[in-house]
Specification:
heterodimer; A: 160 residues; Arc Repressor Mutant, subunit A; Glutaredoxin; 2 domains; 4-stranded mixed sheet; 44% helix; 11% strand; B: alpha/beta; Rossmann fold; Ubiquitin-like (UB roll); 5 domains; 5-stranded mixed sheet
Chain lengths: 160, 624
């Protein structure tokens, strides 16, 4: 955590503290608090880990241990747009992996990372539940169905 | 009780106003699948068209009827006519339909799917005569796509909360006996008798008990729970109340995936409506029963579908399983007696309480009563969500309901990553918990992934194992290390780097992981490998002996080629190739440099579908 922490200034924002106080300081609220922190910043910063740990009176390593267990949480800032490629079974048999590899190659980015210019962060998701119109990708909050490499490139072009 | 009946009377009037309206009513299927297919754009066009022609009509958002291949779906009701359903309504067709149906009042050339009224008009078939719908028995999904999931009134008008009202007149034990008599078994996959689970918890004395609804639908390729919650949230909530009353719980949790934002919104909305109408909180319907429900959003961990992991996750811990006993019914959430039921199980409960166990036992077969929903996806013509009685043959599901496969049928995977691949010889198997287990698969939560000859079963096995390996929580060694070894072996097979002796090693590792893992995730993880080895061994042998992938899927074993005689020299492939592997002047056959080709499929797609291209690019495997 320390290596990560040195990269950021600790910022205690009063608004996050207010948010924290809406939840009773119980361990069962850890995951909802992490979700709120990520909703706010787009990722879980070391500063937020510290604040949550302090609020719930548990150690930072316990907070980070839980956060790193769940795939929803990311520890690096997101890009301007979030691209998720669905790799559920239906998407897989209909070519989802080719879509992921194409983005990895064209934008020189790996899942969980962000492009150098900050344009896209790339994520693989297990299933968006849109299996009947597979393969699908999700850009920000928009789901695009029945994708292929060519259609996908046109769509990504819409997001700068 | 009177209060509910007063609201119900109001609700029937409201429902009647959209069923037999004076002004036209337009229903748009707005579950997340419909929205992904473009339903919100269609809605915008419909609004614009109505304004443009100064037409008065009411727009009602409904859920999804399950015929996903027809999305977006729009229904229109005009005065004196039954509700008529239209499929594949894109923006252009939406405008056309409004003009045709509302202005010209002419249904010719509108290609309706069918009507939904009691009476047929001008010989039009009922919507449920459609091939995908007519073989189904819709109990849990009966309201899906028909009512507004945002309206408590629509739910009440369709016999909503009658099951709860009946339940509250009974003693908890009587309810449990009714559920036991109905023979309802857990629809999450394992098939444990629901009544037995409830009874175990009911019999434990404790001032605090919990009821958890497991809506962490983690199986990739399955969306039954999402669709039910998005289309009919009150059905689930009514089931939760009945279950809670039966076991004596005072607090409930719905553990739902964060990947289902729309389902969460609709649940929250439904919970508010319940509170406003005395269906949640203190002294529900003046019965003395008090109960509240919290929504817990999952944070993305497949293993949290396992009940002890799920409990840990709600407690704010890493979602790791523990050994049982003690079972959650004795010591579950925060150490208190807890029942965990799947969405579909709870969604079935109100129907049993409303119609009785004898009615429920009319569906299905001995030991496997009732219906089960399945998401029918993959290489299937009519994909979507279906509900059939247990005991239905796989062949009926795939061919009569699903319309068969694109190319020749090869296999169907039931039960997601924990299930098995079933070959065509076994298509006459009746779908029950026991028969599926008998052929090496499981019922699972209901994902049915259909594969045709374009699907490589070795690649599918690799895919599932890779998924499980990434989702393994790491607590026990067989699952953590064993699945890793299995993935490595499968990758070698797919990459043409393994010899025939690897198959026996893979099989023995699979058996080891199956017999020694701690929880259901690890114990079932080898099923895709074991079943594909059992039913499709020749396909594995081709990969390791001849380095040949018959389905032309495994990238390291295939090559792309331009058939010179067919190539029109249109240059479409040249423009899409990201590595400059394809070259050649216009109007002359192109060259493909296989040393530069990264097998991204872009040229193949464009050559197959572009009007001026000649379908000249083919994929071959080494043996050919």
């Amino acid at each position: 955590m320390n290596i990560l922490k040195n990269n950021y200034m600790k910022q205690t924002e009063s608004s996050f503290l207010e948010l924290l106080e809406k939840y009773p300081p119980e361990e069962s609220n850890l995951i909802p608090l992490l979700q709120k922190a990520q909703e706010k910043d787009g990722f879980i910063s070391p500063g937020k880990v510290e604040e949550i740990a302090e609020y719930l009176k548990i150690t930072e390593s316990e907070v980070f241990g839980v956060a790193s267990f769940y795939s929803q949480f990311r520890f690096t800032p997101p890009g301007r747009h979030s691209v998720s490629v669905c790799l559920g079974t239906a998407c897989h048999v209909n070519g989802g992996e080719t879509l992921l590899k194409t983005i990895e190659r064209d934008f020189e980015v790996k899942p969980g990372e962000c492009t150098a210019d900050g344009r896209f962060d790339l994520n693989r998701v297990a299933c968006l539940g849109c299996c009947a119109i597979a393969p699908v990708i999700k850009v920000d909050n928009e789901i695009y169905s029945n994708m292929n490499v060519i259609k996908m490139n046109d769509i990504l072009g819409l997001y700068e | 009780m009177n209060n509910l009946e007063t609201i119900r009377e109001k609700s029937i009037t409201e429902w009647q106003s959209v069923r037999q309206p004076d002004e036209p009513v337009i229903f748009i299927g707005m579950a997340s699948c419909g929205i992904a297919a473009g339903a919100d754009k269609v809605k915008a066009v419909i609004k614009k068209t109505l304004e443009e022609y100064k037409l008065k009509a009411k727009i009602v958002e409904v859920g999804c009827i399950g015929t996903c291949y027809l999305e977006p779906i729009v229904d229109i009701t005009v005065k004196g006519q039954p509700r008529i359903s239209f499929g594949n309504v894109d923006e252009k067709r939406a405008e056309y339909l409004i003009k045709k149906v509302l202005i010209e009042k002419d249904l010719t050339k509108t290609k309706p799917l069918g009507h939904l009224g009691p009476e047929s008009s001008n010989g039009m078939p009922h919507l449920f005569e459609q091939s995908m719908l007519k073989h189904q028995v819709r109990i849990v999904t009966r309201n899906c796509g028909l009512i507004d999931p945002g309206s408590l009134m629509h739910y009440l008008a369709n016999d909503g909360y009658i099951g709860l009202a009946n339940a509250l007149k009974k003693k908890p034990l009587e309810i449990i006996e009714e559920i036991e008599a109905a023979g309802l078994r857990g629809r999450g996959g394992a098939g444990f008798p629901t009544g037995k689970k409830w009874k175990a918890c009911h019999n434990v004395k404790s001032d605090t008990k919990y009821l958890i609804c497991n809506a962490d639908e983690g199986d990739p390729g399955a969306f039954m729970n999402r669709l039910l919650i998005e289309s009919d949230p009150h059905a689930l909530l009514e089931g939760i109340l009945i279950a809670a009353y039966a076991i004596g719980a005072t607090q409930g949790y719905i553990y739902i995936r964060a990947e289902y934002p729309l389902a969460i919104v609709r649940l929250r909305n439904a919970l508010n409506q319940m509170k406003e109408n005395g269906l949640l909180g203190d002294n529900i319907l003046d019965s003395g029963f008090s109960f509240s429900i919290s929504i817990k959003e999952g944070a993305g961990a497949f293993v949290c579908g396992e009940e002890t992991s799920l409990i840990h996750s709600i407690e704010g811990k890493r979602g790791m399983p523990r050994t049982r006993p003690p079972y959650p019914a004795q010591s579950g959430l925060f150490g208190k007696p807890t029942v965990i039921n799947n969405v579909e199980t709870l969604g079935t409960v109100p129907h049993i309480l409303r119609n009785g166990s004898a009615w429920y036992r009319k569906f299905g077969v001995e030991g496997n009563f009732g219906t089960k929903t399945f998401s029918l996806v993959g290489k299937i013509r009519r994909s979507g969500l279906i509900e059939v009685p247990l005991g239905t043959r796989l062949r009926e599901i795939i061919f009569d309901i699903g319309g068969g496969t694109m190319k020749e049928f090869k296999a169907v995977q039931t039960g997601g990553p924990s299930g098995g691949c079933i070959p065509s010889e076994l298509l006459d198997t009746r779908v029950t918990y026991e028969t599926l287990a008998g052929i090496g698969s499981i019922m699972g939560s209901g994902g049915l992934i259909v594969m045709d000859t374009d699907t490589c079963v070795v690649d599918v096995a690799r895919y599932f194992l890779d998924f499980i390996q990434k989702e393994s929580c790491g607590k026990c060694t067989p699952c953590r290390v064993g699945t890793r070894h299995m993935v490595e072996m499968l990758e070698k097979i797919c990459n043409g780097e393994a010899g025939p002796d690897i198959l026996d090693k893979l099989e023995s590792m699979a058996r080891l992981v199956k017999s020694t893992s701690l929880c259901g995730l690890g114990q079932t993880a080898p099923n895709p490998v074991l079943t594909t080895l059992r039913y499709f061994r020749p396909e594995y042998v081709k990969h390791v002996k001849d380095y040949y992938c018959p389905a032309l899927v495994c990238n390291e074993l295939i090559e792309y080629e331009v058939i010179k005689e067919k190539c029109t020299g249109c240059q479409r492939c040249v423009s899409v190739c990201p590595t400059g592997a394809i070259t050649g002047p216009r109007s002359e056959p192109h060259n493909l440099d296989t040393s530069k080709c990264i097998k991204c499929r872009a040229c193949y797609e464009v050559c197959r579908f572009d009007a001026i291209a000649g379908n000249a690019i083919i994929i071959t495997s080494r043996k050919e």
